[in-house]
Description:
Radius of gyration: 24 Å
Order of helices and strands: HHEEEEHHEHEHEEEEEEE
Number of strands: 13
Helix content: 10-25%
Structural class: alpha+beta
Shape: globular
Low-confidence stretches: 5-16, 235-239
Amino acid sequence: xxxxxxxxxxxxxxxxxxxxxxxxxxxxxxxxxxxxxxxxxxxxxxxxxxxxxxxxxxxxxxxxxxxxxxxxxxxxxxxxxxxxxxxxxxxxxxxxxxxxxxxxxxxxxxxxxxxxxxxxxxxxxxxxxxxxxxxxxxxxxxxxxxxxxxxxxxxxxxxxxxxxxxxxxxxxxxxxxxxxxxxxxxxxxxxxxxxxxxxxxxxxxxxxxxxxxxxxxxxxxxxxxxxxxxxxxxxxxxxxxxxxxxxxxxxxxxxxxxxxxxxxxxxxxxxxxxxxxxxxxxxxxxxxxxxxxxxxxxxxxxxxxxxxxxxxxxxxxxxxxxxx
Length: 324
């Protein structure tokens, strides 16, 4: 049993782009990637992140002649998008026996659904939140339909095998933590500190470095400081605030950022936001976001279809925390 809006055809056409954008870029991680300008559009299946790396070898000056040294290397990493759709059929007649009948139009045939704004708002918010989780925990081998459309950042970063592991005595004052111990109030400050202490030299001090964690870890971090009566440590404001899941890590210029994609994973990742890339296909006609009345079925249908994929350019610049 489902319902859709026949009379919403005009409404949908007017707001189609808004609905698609809100769903794809409504999550925090996707918004950060979009803010960096690292959204690759028109991706049908996969596209390369083209990477150029060069060095500079100093030579003794004051003499004539030319001696070439150093190298410039081109490499690539691939963003592979998953093809995703959401279909739902809605039968307004199912609302006739409940209080919802008051919102139905007069007559026995309905080509519109009531509560259309609430329906579309909630639908786009839910899609955005599920994409946020998939961006981090996506796994094409998963049995979860909401996670198996494309590989997420955790799987891709782990597969690269070149990150710096912060759960080590060299960085974590609490020592290497096991799954049995976990991240708790008494060690969470050391865990977060280990993330920036383990940053590769080339990344240290960069203004776009963030430490990503789940909301569960983020709340423990806040609680650990408030328990110590250090209420002043978390700046408030339009850009950084504990309420929005972002605080400046005490004594640094790095931001601790809570994302729902890492909830319950006990994983943290420190990286530059400019290192994150997303592939989509918003420019193509295959993107369908419609609410229409299907006469042959006497029902209203919701159709959405899009493509999404992610990757990082430099996995070796990423710090990872994983319980032993």
